[in-house]
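job 3f2a | input accepted
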Amino acid sequence: MTFYQTTYTIGLGKNYLFKFMKKESKAKALAHLKKASGMIKKVSDMVENDSYCIDVLQQSLAAIGFIKSANKVILENHLNCCFKEGMVKKSSKKQDELIQELLRIMDKAKCL
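job 3f2a | predicted structure (112 res):
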C-alpha cells in the first residue's frame, strides 16, 4: 500500500498530517473524473449546437454519475485511511472534529 504524506491546513486552520490516497483509489478516482470531464465538454458542445434537450440531459446525468463514482472512491479511501487512523490515534477532541468534518461533507452531498 503506497501513501503520500504532507501537512496542510484545513477546517479550523490547524495543521494535520494526512496520508493521501492509495495508488489504486487515486487511479480509480482520476479515471472517473477524466470521463466526467470529457462528458461535460460533450454536454457543452451539445448545448452550443442546440442538441435535443433530453439527449443533453442524458449526457449531463452520465457526467454526474462519474463524479458521484469518484466521490465514492475518495470517501471510501478517506474512511479506510485518514478517518480510521484519526479515530485510533487522536485525542477525543480531534476525533470529534473528524466526525464533524465528515458530517459536514455528507450534508453537502445530501447523503442524510
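job 3f2a | The beta strands are 5-10, 14-19.
job 3f2a | closed
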